[in-house]
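Box 3.1 A note on notation
Throughout this textbook, protein chains are presented in two layers. The first layer is the amino acid sequence; the second is a token string describing backbone geometry. Keep the layers aligned when reading.
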Amino acid sequence: MWFKNALLYRFTSPFEFSAEQLEDKLQEFKFTPCLKSEMSSIGWTKALHPKAHTLVHSVGQFHLVSLKKQEKVLPASVVKELLEEKLEEIEQAEGRKVKGKEKQNLKEELIHTLLPQAFSKSTFTRAAIFAESGWILVEAGSPGKAEEMLAYLRKCLGTLPVVPPETDGATMLTFDEWMKGNHPSDFTLGTEVELKDFAEDEGVLRCKNLSLDSEDLLNHLNNGKHVTKIAVDWQETLSCILCDDMAIKRIKFSDVVKEQNEDVTDEDKFARLDADFALMCGELDKFIARLAEVLEFTEVE
């Protein structure tokens, strides 16, 4: 249940769908498995647990949704080998080489023939909507994955006015200052950083398990490199890697936070997942509000 990564997007206008309305919209695009002749299938699945009764799981202002994508696995090497065999047969039988569009058509026919025998691979992308706070957090490690989720959600809802947070390009400079020791008192620097030189060859330096105030690292800052990723701890609540594009990676909630749900036993899986979701969203809501303050997110007009 606990998100390990989060890409942030803020609503440019209020999210006006209730939990019931959101459920109705997603039900129209519910996941169905790939047909034998299909390469892929995409749709909404139960967000909290496979045995839940609804696609959307809501706790107050927080709504959890999960997008499932199923794709047929056809190794390119297999398709290539079979296609070459087919092309050789035609060449020997007809004394000519197959090229261009005809070759492409043969490849497509071959793939269509192989699809019913192919294995299926499923992936899931979750998102948490913070309706009152005006944020949506996509649990993804890359913008492409997040944009796929947002595009499908937009298709289902008819509208989804969201944009990534903007900091007027000053995030790296802020991280530079943090590394020099000028960070807010409620943030503690970890032992991991990525520095990038944007001049000439754009060299990248990645360091782990090092004190970030070491003289060697600070020399890199003084010589023109900038911090693009930095490990932080926040108020004994969570630790993560903050990125200059405002991706939050490798989120780890502290034992102090998780212990708040110790009275909810694992025997009742739904109750535990519900409690963990509510706790996670509550802490992330406060953390994002603090990030918006210290990184000076640009106001949405």
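The longest strand covers residues 62-73. The chain has a mean pLDDT of 89.
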